[in-house]
Design brief:
Rossmann fold, 4-stranded antiparallel β-sheet, 2 domains, Arc Repressor Mutant, subunit A, alpha/beta, single chain
Length: 227
């Protein structure tokens, strides 16, 4: 799945130019023209990286970065017309991963995005993406088609475990162990109930599941539609 990027820039022509260049480079892009819209977009759906201008209306880039960093370690590249070491240091101290001063080349921006994403990818996996399904393993949040889905603790444990091992077939007993359950016959049948509920919540058509598939006589497997 293509990395998703939120471009936060109040100069609309520049924002559109950045978005077009990034889309041509293979990224999925959403634009926010002010800080408040950026915060609302970030609360609505997850992103892999944020390109953040500092001089924004409504809520400035410093405050946007500060609020996002309270809850997320999503990579942030700051853009600004300000020059000098103090501004760069302030941005990095707020939690920015990189810094570009205007004017900049779009080619350099893409190169820096790739570098930041590579560094972020070396960290322990905290999210799982599969098609239009997004699982945040740290926050215990699940989004389907950009909408948050409420799961029970058992449902989340089951989905997270299977999604981290796409294509692998698990027996009901193995799935129970992943949920830290016992291996009684009664609880084994409970796996089927959890699977049924999960399908209702994440599948377009629970009768023809795209993600959680039954392997008759064995158990279940998670299918990543992007593979």
């Amino acid at each position: 799945m293509n990395a998703s990027i939120l471009v936060v820039e109040d100069e609309e022509k520049l924002a559109q130019a950045i978005a077009l260049y990034l889309r041509n480079a293979g990224f999925s892009v959403e634009i926010a023209l002010d800080g408040q819209t950026a915060l609302e977009a970030f609360a609505r759906r997850p992103f892999d990286l944020i390109v953040l201008d500092l001089m924004l209306p409504k809520v400035d880039g410093w405050e946007v970065c500060h609020r996002i960093r309270k809850d997320s370690d999503v990579p942030i590249i700051m853009l600004t017309a300000r020059v000098g070491e103090p501004a760069r240091v302030q941005g990095l101290e707020l939690g920015a991963d990189d810094y570009l001063e205007k004017p900049f080349s779009l080619r350099e921006l893409v190169a820096r995005i790739h570098a930041v994403l590579r560094r972020a990818g070396k960290k322990a996996q905290s999210v799982v993406r599969a098609g239009d399904l997004y699982i945040d393993l740290e926050k215990h949040e699940v989004f389907v088609r950009e909408r948050r889905v409420e799961l029970t603790a058992s449902e989340f444990a089951l989905l997270a475990f299977m999604a981290q091992h796409p294509g692998r077939v698990f027996t009901r007993l193995q799935l129970l162990d992943a949920m830290r359950g016992s291996t009684t016959e009664t609880l084994e049948r409970a796996v089927d109930s959890h699977i049924k509920n999960l399908r209702k919540k994440i599948e377009r058509n629970p009768q023809e599941p795209e993600y959680i598939q039954t392997v008759y006589g064995v158990g279940y497997r998670f299918r990543d539609r992007t593979l």
